[in-house]
Amino acid sequence: MAAIESMTVEAARLSVRVAARLSNSFALEAAFEAPAGFTMLLGPSGGGKTTLLNCISGLRRPDSGRVALGSRVLFDSSIKVDLPMQVRRIGYLFQNLALFPHMTVGQNVEYGIAGRSNAERHRQAAEILETFRIPHLAGRKPAEISGGERQRTALARSLVTNPELLLLDEPLAALDKNIKSRIVDDLRAWNAARGIPILYVTHSPDEAFALGERVIVLEDGKILGQGMPQDVLAAPRHETIAQVVGFENVFDGTVKSLAESHGTMLCQLERTATELEVPLGHHAAGAEVRIAIRAGDIMVATERPHGLSARNTFPGRVTAIRREGVTVILSVEAGVVFEVHVTPGAREQLHLDVGQQLWLVVKTYSCHLVQPTG
Amino acid sequence: MDWNAILLSIRLALVVCAILLLLGIPIAYWIAYSHWRWKFLIESIVALPLVLPPTVLGFYVLVAIGSRSPLGRWYESWTGHGLPFTFAGLVVASVLYSLPFAVQPISAGFALVDRSLLDASSILGASRMRTFFRIILPLSIGGVVTGVVLSFAHTLGEFGVVLMVGGNIPTVTQTVSISIYDAVQSLDYAAANATAMLLLVFSFAVLSITYALNRRIWAVWPLHT
Predict the structure, then answer these.
(1) Contact criterion met (CB below 8 Å) for A221 and A47
(2) Rg (CA), chain A
(3) Could you list the pLDDT tens digit for every one of the 374 residues in chain A?
């Protein structure tokens, strides 16, 4: 059955170009495309993320622009197309989930199934509840279940209508990390057969890099960067991207060996001689991983340090120094180039200058594993 | 005890309630959800009977439905008799007089329903009608019940408007409050007391039952299985 459905539902790319003036000082102007899979919309609160989702879903009419799913135009100001949200075939999870409090989980899920017999509605609802592992909750009210279960209910309610696009507005923000990743795994499994674009809004860089195949950075209503996580970072240095994204250093690595009893593993960076000990992930030796490190989490020393708990100590050479406000930004060549932030006081005390030999110190827990595509 | 007057009053209140439910819900919906900038004018018109003396309202209704007005003439040519001093005329006046008592609690109930639920309903493909009957109405049923009860009680107890528009014709327009007034005027305190006491007990019973049901409204709401 799933196979048949995946053949009838054609995964269409989302393409968006919208402009909407919200106030005299704030205007949203965004253009991007999202293919099948997770696209993370990352940015600080008030950056226009929710407004963008509202424009796509039809909850808000943009001043101008075009929104299309494949060849299906949902909104186009130039030819005066503005489909009502009822027929856009979009699933949208609000931040508050908006479950109907007077209906049971089962009734919530069945709500969006239109034009079917009662038996068929029950069957479809039961199937999606099974997919999201909550069939036992069908008779309960939203107030009687946990946060994670409400989350699963809201997902099931949106997805049972077979939408061609899913919009998620920080739906998992309040959830425990483990619960969150299990829900996302189930969502990925659901989408494996369908391949619809999923636009996931978050203000957490960690979440964006952990879940997303693509990242779009949005601030003050403008897109600052978009692409694969590492491309977004490698793009010409944009101060705000670094701030929004929070990681100045992102490296591709290869797992060399696992130390399961220590909860760590050793990774080779970008096929150079530089190796980092990082927290253990669900990887085998030889697996490709992506490692992100904040520039402020890297220490420098002018002599080889000893007696430290930090597990990663390696030599490097300063190739550039610049100052921005009260931050001194070092580029340090150590097989790969690290961006390191120190205070002006530290620079003075250590007499840091271009060409100088240094030791870099990185704690294992300062190395964040972020998932490559998949 | 004046049974004719009591039955007439109850009949009037029931008819007015039914009409107000049909009329009040769309008006309340519009007031709760419209973004029209001059909406406050309509809100003021609906609320007017709250502040106007019943005689003022009754006077204008009498003029409006009288045989000199287009409305009155149209009704006369259609039915063969005039509206004033008939039960139908009484109904028209009572509906206008009790309108705010139905519209305001219903509209307040609608406005209390979380907007995101309505958005979620629309995105799930539901029409406005379906959203109204499946989401808005069940979640604001307390306001609707309150509106119905208040307009019922208000119609049952009105005096000034009824006197202006309906006069005092036994079995046609003589409602309970006018019958009591009549009895007191003729110094028949026993009859006045009997009718008044029945009205008091009846009103208290209706209000008690409604508020008791209203409290556990989720338990009795029949719309979904």
Answers:
(1) yes
(2) 24
(3) 444 444 444 568 999 999 999 888 889 999 999 999 999 998 888 889 999 999 999 999 999 999 999 999 999 999 999 999 999 999 999 999 999 999 999 999 999 998 788 899 999 999 999 999 999 999 999 999 999 999 999 999 999 999 999 999 987 777 777 788 888 889 999 998 889 999 999 887 777 777 778 889 888 888 888 887 766 765 544 555 656 667 788 888 899 999 888 889 999 998 888 899 998 877 888 888 878 888 888 999 999 888 888 889 999 999 999 988 888 999 999 989 999 999 999 999 999 999 999 999 999 888 877 655 33
Residue A244: CB atoms within 10 A of its CB come to 22
Do A50 and A169 contact (CB within 8 A), yes or no? yes
- CB atoms near residue B38 (< 10 Å): 8
The model carries a pTM of 0.74
Min Cα separation A167/chain B (Å): 11
Q: Does the CB of B133 have a partner CB in chain A at under 8 Å?
A: no
Could you give the CA distance from residue A64 to residue A72 in angstroms, rounded to a whole number? Answer: 17
CB pairs under 8 A between A and B: 53
CA–CA min distance B218, chain A (Å) = 8
Q: A264 near A251, Cβ under 8 Å?
A: no
Residues in B touching A103 (Cβ below 8 Å): 224
B127 to chain A, any CB pair closer than 8 A? The answer is yes
Interchain pair A107, B224: CB under 8 A: yes
Residue A350's CB is within 10 A of a number of other CB atoms, namely 14
Could A102 and B122 be called an inter-chain contact, meaning their C-beta atoms sit closer than 8 Å? no
Does residue B205 belong to the interface with chain A, where contact is any CB pair within 8 Å? no
Distance CA A147, CA A196 (A): 25
Pairing status of strand A312-324 against strand A275-279? unpaired
A114 vs B contacts (CB less than 8 Å)? 125
Tell me, what amino acid is at A252? D
Q: Are B126 and A116 in contact (CB under 8 A)?
A: no
User: Which chain B positions have a beta carbon within 8 Å of A100's beta carbon?
Assistant: 117, 120-121, 134-135
Closest to A292 in 3D by CA, of A328, A240, A339, A241: A339
CA nearest A121: which of A160, A93, A150, A164?
A160
Do A362 and A312 contact (CB within 8 A), yes or no?
Answer: yes
Note whether A100 contacts B135, CB cutoff 8 Å.
Answer: yes
Question: Any residues with CB less than 8 A from the CB of A1 and at least 6 apart, and which?
Answer: none
Residue for token pair 């879903």: A57
Q: Are B161 and B54 in contact (CB under 8 A)?
A: yes
ipTM: 0.80
Task: Write the CB contacts of B85 (distance below 8 Å, at least 6 apart in sequence).
Answer: B165, B166, B167, B169, B172, B173
